[in-house]
Structures are given as C-alpha cells and as structure tokens.
Amino acid sequence: MIRNISVQDVTANVAELCMEANYHLGNDVRSALQNAVEKEISPVGKGILQQLVTNADIASTEEMPICQDTGFTVIFLEIGQEVHLFGGDLYEAVDEGIRQGYMKGYLRKSIVNHPLERVNTGDNTPGVIHTKIVPGNQLKITVVPKGGGSENMSAVKMLKPSEGVNGVKKFILEQVATAGPNSCPPVIVGVGIGGTLEKVALLAKEALLRPVGEKNSIGDIAKLEEELLIDINKLGIGPQGFGGVTTALAVHIEIFPAHIASLPVAVNINCHASRHKTRFL
Amino acid sequence: MQKIFTPLNNKAVEQLKSGQQILLNGKLYTGRDAAHKKLMELIEKGEMLPFNLLGQVLYYVGPAPAKPGQVIGSAGPTTSGRMDSYTPELLSRGLKGTIGKGYRSAEVIKAGIEYKAVYFAAVGGAGALIAKCIKKSSVIAYPELGPEAIYELEVEDFPLIVVNDIYGGDLYTEGRNRYSSNKICN
C-alpha cells in the first residue's frame, strides 16, 4: 500500500528534531559520561566529566543548546519504497525545517555560503542530506548536528591492503592522538573501513549514529572496537586533554566490501556532545 | 579555587602555573576567526582597535543566540589553533590572556613567554554551564558577523585551567605524560 506523506510534515518534524537534538543529550551518552566519572583516575578529569553531565542537565532542563556549536545539520532520511512524498521538493522541505528549527530554537547559525568567500547564510542552511531507499512504507528522519571542532579532526586514508588490521589500528590511534584536546574529549570515534573514498566517509558518520557502546554485530569487528577503545584510553589524553584515562567513550566501526586494490579507512570523531535524534513518520 | 580579576598585569600572570584551576572575574572580549582577520586589517592600516588590548583577555567563542530574558545563549570555547597565526601580534600589543580549547602553536607559546601572557582552557562543549557565569553581554564590533561578532562580556567565577604559563609549562603535554601507558603514538 502506497502511503502519502506531505513534505510539510517533513519540515515540521525536522524543525522539532533540530531543537531536540541540540537540547537533550541522549541517555546513552549521558550514562557513558556518568560511568566515566566513576572510572576516571585523574581528579581534574573526574571534575570535568562531572561538569559535562551537569552541563547536559542544564541544557535539557532549560532547553538551551548543550554546546554553542549547534553544528552543520546532517540529516539521514530512510525513505520506504512504498512512500509517496507530495506537496513540494523534499530537499527544500528539509532545509525549511532546518531554517525554522534553528530560528525558533535560538540555535547558532554556523554555515557560510561559500567556502572561500565565507558569508554566513543566517539560517544554518543548507543541510547535508543523505537519502536511502528502504523497503516499507515509513519515512525515518535522523537529525545529527555535527560540530566543527571534532569534524575538523577527522580524516580519510587510502591504505594498502598489505597494511591490514595493524595499519588500520595505527591510523585510527594516530588520528585520535593528533586530535588530542581539539575535538573535546571524551570522544566517540566513528570508523569506516572498506568501500570507496566517499563510501568510507559515510560509513564513519553512520557509525556515530549507533547508541554509545553498542557493539558491531560482527564478532571480529566488535573485538577490534574493544581493542581500539583500550588503546585510545591508554594515550593519556583524558577529558578535555588535561590528562586521564577517559579519552574515548566508545569506538564504533562500520565495514563494507572493498576493491582488491583498496583498503580505505575513515575516522569521523565526535565530541562528547554526540547528538542525534530520530523520528518515524 | 583561586579567583583572578581582569584586567591582568604582569604580577598576576607571573603567579599562574600550568594545571592550576582558577575562577576568572571581570570584563572579557570575544573574538574568533573572522573578527581576528578584521582586527589584523586595522593593525596593518594603523587604525584604532574596537577595544584597548592592554591587560585584556580574549575569549574564543561564538555564542548561541540568547533567548528572551537570557544574557547569552550557550557559550563554550572554540578551537584556539585557528587563531594562532594572529595571536603573537596581539600579545605583543598588550593582550595578557587568551581562552579557548585545544593546542597552541610553538609560536604562540613562545610569544606568551616573551610578552608574559597566559593561555587558559575552558571546558569545551560545556556551553550551557559557562553561560551561567556570564552576567552581561553586548556586541561592541562587527555585528554583521553574527556569532563571530566581538562581544564585551562580564563574567563571574568563570572556571578555567591554565594550559600554557609564562615559564614554558604546558598542561596538555604534562597531563598526557602523567596518564599515558601507550607509547605507540607518543
């Protein structure tokens, strides 16, 4: 059965999701921060983690942004193949939702119109919109505001297949070490392995959508996530880079088949304010 | 925790050591990428800056808009490294402190030692919490830059940690060395 969904509904929901994502930190991230308070051995680090929990609580209660950098608005749309969208252009409807959400929600507008001329667009548009056609008759909307500080510390590298798992681990560790305090640790490390240049970057971003600490369903990848988390937390960077054993809250890896000649790896780092909210229409 | 009051003089700066946690009080000025670029253009032309740098502290922040009744929206620090190319010049002209998050370049650290200025970190991403310490806020230059405009802020007990002091101390290196048990990337 074909379901009709108006793009005006998409606009209204995107607007609300932009506000919700920026005000209310997910319970998964909040719990991970709370657990880290108990485990952190650096007294300064412990204090910082406690401040981050308090900050998230103030933001939620007062409905103000967790972080002033309310991000590039990244939107994932999973469109059921039995959905008929009507009433206008879907992408324009999404951007209108961003426009309304960022204005009504007093969220910071951080997008410039041209990467070199750099004049603020004033409404945080355009968003970065990813669409996927899936079975079914639902529309799944996920809004992921992504801050510039942690995004700037992300990277893609095309490894040689012979570099194997050790090469992959070395690249990820080096990237987190280089980012140090800049990406607002404790971080969530999104990793993509396989595919092509653009596919691997998308995999790394999608990895950030998984609830914090939920493991990959593939056994050896779950093991790799665990090993990397231990290694990263041995770097000593700690909360905000002031030293400690909590540099990352989680490492999430997504994989995809690769070309016989290629081993692409992408690291997309998220700060502790790992924000994302989803709704089904 | 020790309270510090702006403007800062050499005597105040001499007492600060890396790793020390302090509460900052008084007036601050904000500035980030686009505002720095404009300040440097004024310096090159030999024109007056929108505020007197002497003894002042610059906070790298682009606040979220204030809701009705709020002084300011979320206001946590942004990554300082983007301002590195401008900072030594401002320190040579009397700026005594900068506040942000993340690494500074070797040039900025050297200029801090030479001109007696300190680099403080605020807690990145704690924008809602920090907004509570900001008692007054007004845009004093470049309103057209939106979140990148220069604001004059008045803060009460703004929690900061000294990262780079005037003696060459660097909390990011010291903190990491203290807790690192992985030498792969050191």
If you had to describe this structure to a student in words, what would you say it looks like?
Chain B: Keywords: Lyase. Chain B: GO terms for molecular function: hydro-lyase activity. Chain B: Residues 9-174 form the Fe-S hydro-lyase tartrate dehydratase beta-type catalytic domain. The complex is a heterodimer of chains A (281) and B (186). In chain A, 40% of the residues lie in helices and 25% in strands. Chain A is α/β, with parallel strands linked by helices. Chain A has 2 domains: 3-22 and 66-146, no CATH class; 149-274, no CATH class. Chain A has a 4-stranded mixed sheet with strand order 4-2-5-10. A 4-stranded mixed sheet of chain A has the order 6-9-7-8. In chain A, strands 1-3 form a two-stranded parallel sheet. The longest helix of chain A has 20 residues, at 43-62. Chain A is globular. In chain A, 49% of the residues are buried. The model of chain A has no long low-confidence stretch (mean pLDDT 97). With 186 residues, chain B is of the alpha/beta class. Chain B has one domain: Fe-S hydro-lyase, tartrate dehydratase beta-type, catalytic domain (fumarase, Alpha-Beta Barrel), CATH 3.20.130.10. Helices cover 26% and strands 26% of the residues of chain B. Chain B is built from 6 helices and 7 strands; from the N terminus they run E-H-E-H-E-H-E-H-E-H-E-E-H. Chain B has helices spanning 10-14, 33-45, 87-92, 106-115, 127-131, 171-179; strands spanning 2-5, 21-30, 57-59, 97-100, 118-121, 134-141, 150-164. Chain B has a 5-stranded mixed barrel. In chain B, strand 2, helix 2 (33-45) and strand 3 (57-59) form a beta-alpha-beta unit. Chain B is globular. Chains A and B meet through helix 3 and helix 6 of A and helix 5 and helix 6 of B.
